[in-house]
Known about the structure:
Elements: H1 3-9, H2 16-37, H3 72-77, E1 82-83, E2 86-87
Antiparallel strand pairs: 1-2
Amino acid sequence: MDVRKVAKLAHLEISEEEVDLYTPQMAEIVNYIEQLNELDTDLVEPMLGGLTREGAVTESMREDIPAGSLGQTAALSEAPSAVSGHFQVPKVL
């Protein structure tokens, strides 16, 4: 795992000390994910929710109730740059 490449993709500056620190940590994470990928989950039923501390099943489903939107003025009020009612972002191409 190339920590410098990941940092570049995330637009992060990273020092040599951080490269030395994060390289083994990222390798451990990738190794753990590879172990999880080896598990046979064909007979495991997908779940919505989880368990409480007591082991009771939780229900994570809720009614889909429409709510009001944030609104253009409120959304743009915290934007670093807005032009003609739109977010202004840097050109990427």
